[in-house]
Amino acid sequence: MARRPHTPAEAWRLLQEGNRRFVEGDPGHPNQDAERRSHLTAGQEPIAAIFGCSDSRLAAEIIFDVGLGDVFVIRTAGQVIDDAVLGTLEYAVDVLDIPLVVVLGHDSCGAVTAAVEAYETGTMPAGFIRSLVERITPSVFAAQRAGVTDVDGTVAEHVDQTCDRLVESSRSLYRAVRDGRAAVVGLTYSLAEGTAQPGRVLGDLEV
């Protein structure tokens, strides 16, 4: 990554290329040496902000074959939005001038499974897991209205709904997308295949 991409489409192409290397079993492991570490002490210029699930199998730097300083990562179970997430993404877009926001979900998601089960049984989990489920439930409703009842289909719907909610909730993100400074893309990752399939796209992005 000799030159930082300046458009969402350029950033997206770099992530696609990295994921392709990962899927093919030929990762380049870029920007992971001592020289890169030393260079980054002066500052950071990530190519994308990745808002993903906390699942241990969903390590963004690995599945997109990038290194130190390349991606700005936020993770919560089920990629659930809260004020800290919104503030972090606004910092990414407005302060770090990152051109691409990725919402990264995955199949067999435990948080989404819990939300689907709560919808089906009418029983909410205890503790703060309940808070996670409550925030995912609107996506479960949207999936059900579309005739989608399985967990993986609901995950894809939740990714799309999360993209919409980010832009609806944050005026900074809305303006960045409106003005063409950034784009938002939703991806659903396959644990078995290693691929990241695009869903919702907000902004000018070639997919």
Can you characterise this structure?
There is one protein chain. Helix content is 46%, strand content 16%. It has 207 residues and is α/β, with parallel strands linked by helices. It has one domain (8-200): Beta-carbonic Anhydrase, Chain A (3-Layer(aba) Sandwich), CATH 3.40.1050. It has a 5-stranded mixed beta sheet with strand order 2-1-3-4-5, sandwiched between helices. It is globular, with a radius of gyration of 17 Å. The mean pLDDT is 95.
Physical arrangement of strands within the biggest beta sheet: 2-1-3-4-5
Principal-axes geometry comes out as globular
Radius of gyration: 17 Å
Work out the helix count. 8
Number of domains: 1
Largest β-sheet summary = 5 strands, mixed
Kindly report how far apart the N and C termini lie: 20 Å
Estimate what percentage of residues fall within beta strands: 15-25%
CATH class: Alpha Beta
Which structural class fits the helix and strand makeup? alpha/beta
**Relative helix content:** 40-55%
Determine the oligomeric state from the structure: single chain
The third-level CATH topology is Beta-carbonic Anhydrase, Chain A
Named at the architecture level, the CATH assignment is 3-Layer(aba) Sandwich
- H/E order of the elements? HHEHEHEHHHHEE
Tally of DSSP β-strands: 5
| Chain-averaged pLDDT | 95
Low-confidence stretches: none
Q: Say which CATH homologous superfamily is assigned.
A: Carbonic anhydrase
